[in-house]
Amino acid sequence: MSEVIKVSNLWKVYPDGTKALKSVDLVIKEGEFCGLMGPSGSGKSTLLHLIAGLDRPTEGKIWVLGREVTAMKEDELADFRKNNLAFVFQLFYLLEDFSVLENLLLVGDMVGIKDARKKALEILSFLRLEDKAHQKPSQLSGGQMQRVAIGRALMLEPKVLLADEPTGNLDLEEGTRIFELFKHLNQERGITFLVATHNTELSKFFSRIVRLRDGTLFY
Ligand SMILES: Nc1ncnc2c1ncn2[C@@H]1O[C@H](COP(=O)(O)OP(=O)(O)OP(=O)(O)O)[C@@H](O)[C@H]1O
Ligand SMILES: [Mg+2]
Q: What span, in angstroms and rounded, lies between the C-alpha atoms of 124 and 56?
């Protein structure tokens, strides 16, 4: 199995001196459904942001799909990210003035997907959201908004999906549905997952769990 994510001696020291990550080493292989767990403030979001190239490390290197993201310039990184990686944020970041369908189509435009509308409708149907396509995000429940945020990530046809507390705002029932969906995408489409969560009740879904404590990784 090939290495999809490789992190070597990764440090993140924020400008105020907070050492959020201390010499983290991690390998995630193709097809893994890996959980990233640890208490609040342990560095989960920091690690996911660095892997996605949304922020730069203080020291260390990161490879995604064999390419060193820490060596890329900003425009190269943006290009690489949109072709390979998707990030699901806890707070959704949906565009409130646009319908559910339009939220997906805007991503399609961004990456120049052909037949974006057909694909967006397929994804919405897969996510059981077809009847919400023309609603605005504010008209949806938390679980439905989370599914739209996942649908937007799926428009990118990512090889790797990073998710930061994707069920943080949901009850256990809706959280379980999201994890079942992730597992399905992992198994049917071969998408590799790294998912940060606090929720120990959902940890049974993971094929492996890596744990952070105070910026250090434990296996
Ligand atoms: N921009 C920042 N500037 C300074 N310190 C930061 C910044 N972002 C995060 N930190 C600090 O870095 C540490 C790790 O934060 P991080 O957000 O990665 O934790 P987390 O594991 O995702 O926590 P949570 O479970 O609460 O989301 C914390 O001590 C946090 O206060
Ligand atoms: Mg976090």
A: 34
Taking only Cα atoms into account, the Rg of the chain, rounded to an integer number of angstroms, comes to 17
Give the distance (Å) from ligand 2 centre to CA of residue 218: 17
- Cα(140)–Cα(153) distance, integer angstroms: 18
Cβ atoms of 185 and 216 closer than 8 Å? no
CB-CB neighbours of 57 under 10 Å: 23
Sorted by where each begins, the domain ranges of the chain are 3-94+144-218
Report helix angle 116-126 to 142-155, nearest 10. Answer: 140
The answer to whether the predicted template modeling score (pTM) of the entire model surpasses 0.85 is yes
Question: Could you give the CA distance from residue 181 to residue 187 in angstroms, rounded to a whole number?
Answer: 10
To the nearest 10°, report the CA torsion of 66, 72, 74, 78: -10
Summarize pLDDT for 187-201 with one digit per residue, the tens. Answer: 999 999 999 998 899
36-74, pLDDT tens digit by residue? 999 999 999 999 999 999 999 999 999 999 999 999 999
Q: CA 121, 131, 170 angle in degrees (round to 5)?
A: 95
Count CB-CB contacts under 10 A for residue 31.
15
How far does the centroid of ligand 2 lie from the alpha carbon of residue 141, in Å? 22
Ligand 2 is an ion; its neighbours by CB within 5 Å are: 44-45
Cβ–ligand 1 contact at 197 (below 6 Å): no
Which CATH fold topology does 3-94+144-218 show?
Answer: Rossmann fold (3.40.50)
